[in-house]
Amino acid sequence: MTPEIPSPTQVVHAADAVVASVQLERVSEEGEDLLLATVLVDDEPVEDTEVGFYLMTTIGVVELGRDHTLDDGTAAVDYPADVPQGRDETLYFTARLTGDENLTGEGHCVISVLAQLEHEPTPPAPQPDASALALSNIKAELLLRMRRQNDKVDPAGGPKASHIETLFRESLEVSADGFIGRPDLIDLKLFGSFGLSQQSVDTNGNDDHEDGTLHEYDVSAVVARQQIAPITLYSRRTQELLTREFAGSLDSITITHGADVYIKSASVPTRLSFYNTIQEQEDLGGPRDSRRDQKTISWHSEHQPTDTQTLTWDYAFNQIDKHFGSPVGNTFDFQTHEATLSHALDFGLDNQHALFSSINVFRRSGDFALDRLRWDESLNFEHSDALRTFLDFTLDREEGAGNDHTLVRPSGGFQHRTFRSLVTTGRLGGNLLQQADGAGSREVFGQINFDYRKDVPHGAVSADLRFAANRRDNEQTTGVTSFTDEPWIFIDPAPVTLARRHIVASSIVVTNITGLTVFSEGLDYTILAFEDRVEIHRVVAGSIANFTFVLVDYDVTPEPANVTTTLSGAIGVRYDIDEGWLRGLGVYGAYFQQDQDVHTAVPVMLTVDSIRDLKFGADYRIWEVDLNAERQIHDSTIRPFEATRFSGRLSHRLWRDTRLVFDAGYTKLDFTDDGNQTNFATASGEIETQITRRLWGRIALAWRDEQDNLRGDTDGFEQQLELRWRHLQTDLFVLARNAFFNTDHQDNTFQVIEIGLRRRF
Prior knowledge:
Layout: E1 9-10, E2 18-19, E3 21-29, E4 32-41, E5 44-45, E6 50-57, E7 60-68, E8 74-78, E9 90-97, E10 103-104, E11 106-112, H1 113-116, E12 133-155, E13 161-180, E14 186-203, E15 206-223, E16 231-242, E17 250-263, E18 270-283, E19 290-303, E20 309-324, E21 331-347, E22 353-366, E23 370-382, E24 387-400, E25 405-418, E26 422-435, E27 440-456, E28 459-474, E29 481-490, E30 496-498, E31 503-512, E32 525-529, E33 534-538, E34 548-556, E35 562-577, E36 585-600, E37 611-622, E38 625-636, E39 641-655, E40 658-671, E41 677-690, E42 695-708, E43 712-727, E44 730-743, E45 746-760
Parallel strand pairs: 2-10
Antiparallel strand pairs: 1-11, 3-4, 4-5, 4-8, 6-7, 6-9, 9-11, 12-13, 12-45, 13-14, 14-15, 15-16, 16-17, 17-18, 18-19, 19-20, 20-21, 21-22, 22-23, 23-24, 24-25, 25-26, 26-27, 27-28, 28-35, 29-34, 30-33, 31-34, 32-33, 35-36, 36-37, 37-38, 38-39, 39-40, 40-41, 41-42, 42-43, 43-44, 44-45
């Protein structure tokens, strides 16, 4: 059936919006083949409005591009050069206003391919050849790039060092779609980039020149797409310049080969995957050269024996080899096997109850060897809309260097809702830990939480009240005790603090949240060890970004037998105003108290962690600005401090095609135990604009200043400019970046300029 053809001009009505007339046609201007849209309101042209252009096909909608209208109300994109040729086909194009929610309208046009070809006869369709290679949508681009990087290091009391690199690259990029035999037999996506490079390097006055070749590719094939087990094969190689905050750039090469098999079984759908990724990073003039080789095999299957049951199986093998070049020289080499079998069951008259069971087996060999078996059971009863009870059970068995133990953890509780305003949650449980050296511990705990929310005049009030009690009987340990996969987050300027004695600082290992990326001490983080704690500070120019979640492993030397009792309580209140002249204001306060008592024959070897923490503040949203001010008084036996924090954010669209974002923050930390003080200030801004129809620009600035009496002072300032200009099939882009980062021991300067020209054919 032929689809209904819309009229050449069509408007779409929307509430609270001005309806525009949009006329769409194909035109030729100054040798350019364009799709031209004219936007009118009351027969008057509309200036500076974003228009999206689309080609409607039988398999979906293809976006051709976007443009802003000029003072005559016109916007345009290039007419697609790869439209079907030699077939009796009609093309449906749409122009739609996309940049202003207060203005709406659509225009359509219909173009006959045969009319473009002056009704040339349609050749007979060739019969498919099972061995033939067919290519379509072939595109080619010529890319010329020049990059110059200048890094300087000025250490206090030492010789200066400089690294200047000048790089020229000329490459031809070719892409195509295709198939072998038929599209449903072997479907292809092909991309390749090939070229030459010329590199000149000046390191401390020593010149070196090297000529080389370039090659990037992204090739994939889907075999037997319509069959029960289609196979996807792929191979990729990319080379890019990675920028780091307040640091030099990394030249990164990533190579990935892999295969996926999806078995479309009605009873047991299964996905099998294999890939090998090699990433090489070169720190031009710096110490961060590294190579990471990861091989992964994964297997996922599901089965539903009944409508209320689901069985899930997951297996993954990973082999990780990572090497840091000189002067760091660290090498990490380990393999992991992990398998998980889980079962989910819904039961009851309305299937309102649920039982979830899982068994996880994990083995890591090589560096950081560890074997773990974990069994989890979770039973939930939905007695009514207001009452839920639950029972949980965990058995965790770990074996590793100094970490052989068995943990049994049963617990249960309830959750009750009252009048949709109050939620009460309680839990009781215990832990039984048995270690290989005969030591162990027994723990009982209980907690109850009250969460309250109520609509009140001019806004809403939320409050929470929490109580917890814990008693742990610890037997004397005779060997090293290991703690694995403790979750932490880095939030500047505070470090990750491991608050206990007898931590072996050299045993600390920090990984990403998956555990597959191991960070390097010295490059990514530094360690400060104290008598009652260990602090882990992230390195600003390293691989750990601010607000990054990490996992931390560490060992603890033998400790005496002890009985530790911990009682804690917390209360918090918040009032949000959403009416009146104070709309957008929220005020809050919270108080936490922990009392800990330790009984042991050798009290000097253990630290009591008692806390009094008071926090209060306010945040305010007005227009497109978010503001926050907060005060915290943290009195504790381990690292007491007082903190004052201010932050603000502005996100504003100056014009339809110009956006401004600005962030600023200030934190002051006063540590009352040793008199140390930290002052930390940050500011960053970004403005992005469509300067003309063909010219786009972006400016970004970032500044930070940290003053620490213990660790020293650091400051950094980074500026970046990007420009992109497009005319017909030619793109010109410019990137300029300047950054410096100074410490008490060393001043660093990093500069990069990159210019490129891209020509499409």
